[in-house]
Amino acid sequence: MDCRRFLLTSLAGAVAAPLAAKGQQSGKVYQIGFLSSQMPTDPEVSRLLGVFVQALRNLGYAEGRNLAIEYRWAERAEWLPDFALELVRLKQASGFRTAHQHLRRHA
């Protein structure tokens, strides 16, 4: 598995984990940040994003109803830190952990 795909799937899992753990509260809209080093036009990224959004739906979360996702697409890997900082500043990623921290917790 290449590094980009690993990072994408790890970040998606890290972002979704706090949502599943908290459960749903009536009327609350959860906001998460989604950060990728690949563009959504890439077929594999598009497929993985579809799986991610479907997994959230299976947990009872739907964009526009009780979930807002703020997407950031970095065409170059060196843009990732700036985009991550932007998401944190927007408070979209309140449950955000790095992929490394997520894997260490679940290893």
Folded structure, characterized:
The chain is flat and about 40 Å long. The two termini are 18 Å apart. It is 50% helix and 13% strand. It has helices at residues 3-22, 43-58, 80-89, 99-106, and strands spanning 30-36, 67-73. It is an alpha+beta fold. The longest helix is centred in the first third of the chain and has 20 residues, at 3-22. It has a two-stranded parallel ribbon with strand order 1-2. The model is unreliable at 96-104 (pLDDT under 50).
Largest sheet: 2 strands, parallel
Strand sequence of the main sheet, in spatial order?
A: 1-2
Helical content stands at 40-55%
Mean pLDDT: 74
Shape: flat
Strand content bin = 5-15%
State the low-pLDDT regions, or none.
Answer: 96-104
Instruction: Write down the Rg.
Output: 13 Å
Number of domains: 1
H/E topology pattern: HEHEHH
The class by helix and strand makeup works out as alpha+beta
Number of helices: 4
Strand runs, count: 2
**CA(first)-CA(last) distance:** 18 Å
Labels describing this entry:
107 residues; alpha+beta; two-stranded parallel ribbon; 4 helices
Short synopsis of the structure:
The chain is an alpha+beta fold. It has helices spanning 3-22, 43-58, 80-89, 99-106; strands at residues 30-36, 67-73.
Topology:
Blueprint lengths: L2 H20 L7 E7 L6 H16 L8 E7 L6 H10 L9 H8 L1
Parallel strand pairs: 1-2
Helix pairs in contact: 1-2, 1-4
